[in-house]
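Chapter review: from sequence to fold.
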Amino acid sequence: MTSTSPDFGEEESYVMVGPGAEDPTDVPDYLTAIGSEVDNLSADLRTISLEIHDHPELQYKEYHAHKVLTEYLAQQPGWIVTPSAYGIGTAFVAVYEDGRQGPVVSFNAEYDALAGIGHACGHNLIAVMSVAGALATAKIMAEEGIAGKVVLFGTPAEGGGGKIKLLNAGAYKDNNVDISLLAHPGIGPDAALVRTAAYFAFKVEYFGKEAHAAARPWDGINALDALITAYNSIAVLRQQTQPGDIIQGMITNGGLRPNIIHAYSAGRFVVRSSSRARVEALKKRVFACFEAGATATGAELKLTPGGSYDDHMPNQALGRSYRHFFNRLGGEIARGDIDVLRSVTSASTDQGNISYAMPSLQPNCWIRSEDQDGKQLGGPHTPDFEKGARAEEAHGLAMRVAKGLAATAVDVLTRPELLAEAKRDFEEMKRVDEESRCSA
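The token string follows.
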């Protein structure tokens, strides 16, 4: 651990909240104590991480992970744990507070796995990063007499919108959450201001009319032709979409036999873009392609919405705080204007919806996915990454991130001006989003 803070330049100083902003050297610093507490927790959390990793469970079926996490948290002094919270069997809410009014900081713990490749998204690490961050924050609050509240949400089914279900059920509102923190492992460089893509999934069906494909094809309406026409139209559309716009699809039903005019066809499609406003604009153009298939063939079109995630909008104020502490721990996160550019990803997460409900931060935690010669292996959602997420080194890196998250949480709890700035950033983000959506 290093105690030397890098030189961010004048525009990237630790806190910029206008005239009279406190210099960080004048603010009580709890990073050393936080680091000690996370180190004390590390061995237990390594065991928990391996328990989750070695018993992969799919979305909303994370019974073992739920049991391991809630039982451990229930043993921690001062914590009140609610298993199977808000009617979701594998969700939980753990709360620490001493009764004094103050800000409410929250952490989200993920623990679902992927079909066939287990914890290839590293959710075992996400779980223990959030647990470590929450417990260390509470420990400092107790030792230093800091007012406020810490809430740790057990959020199942990141791949199935678990956080959105909790959000819609009122979990965050009921606890008066001010900020939300979460970190995700990957093979990209450590980053604070990670921004993810928005996406919208949907099912497409065409209903036509059967006929003999050789004897009387003119009696039929070819539903497969409608889908192929739409598919080809989308291929043409891709030439004129904006950078960051992604259209993905598959045909799930192409008919019964080649000698029948196909009365039914179906497919599943996804559109992604850099913001939810851009997704709305892209949806209109993509839906027009499917309508063209119906118009060209006479088939009836049915579009059924599936899941959707908002893009994750990182909070700039929280990002500055996290970067300051993480770099003091030996990290090398670039200054904000560079960080926000190089940490953009086309992947999507339900934490994006949280970022539109409250100030949110989801830093990237680099872990090794390389062979013994340093050759880059697969990233998230690959067997290579599943192995990397189990490594001792990955756990150590995750604990460093947990220290940075806890330090950011304590920073919010102890400096009202930081929380005020985070909320101003959040309101400005919402204003820009609303303008974009109105013009989409």
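Two observations follow directly from the output. Confidence is low (pLDDT under 50) at residues 1-25. The longest strand covers residues 198-207.
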